[in-house]
Amino acid sequence: MKYDILVTEQGEYKTTFSRKYLIRKNYAPLNIKNVISAIPGTIIKLNIALKDEVAEGDVLLELDAMKMHNKILAPMSGIIKSIHVTEGVRVPKNFLMVEFE
Length: 101
Known about the structure:
The protein is mainly beta. 4% of the residues lie in helices and 47% in strands. The protein has one helix at residues 19-22; strands at residues 4-8, 11-15, 34-36, 41-46, 53-54, 59-65, 68-73, 78-83, 90-91, 96-100. The strands form 3 sheets. The chain has a 4-stranded antiparallel β-sheet, with no helix packed on it. It has a 4-stranded antiparallel β-sheet with strand order 7-6-4-9, with no helix packed on it.
């Protein structure tokens, strides 16, 4: 039987890769300057505008999802570069909602 070599930080392992493993999307580190929806939902309130200066932890917007009002907080202090949503818009999972400069 033919084996593949999986290289990790802990060492190398002899294994066989499944088809699902081979066609998976490669890992990309998150960009802290992008605020992305973790779950699908509807934007019910926007608390920011373009070029607003916000502090880390400020509420950027509220997302209604799974019968809850989720407050989306600023991951960092900075200036809002662009807003890709408006109130009442439904967003899918992993949708870019806000960008920081």
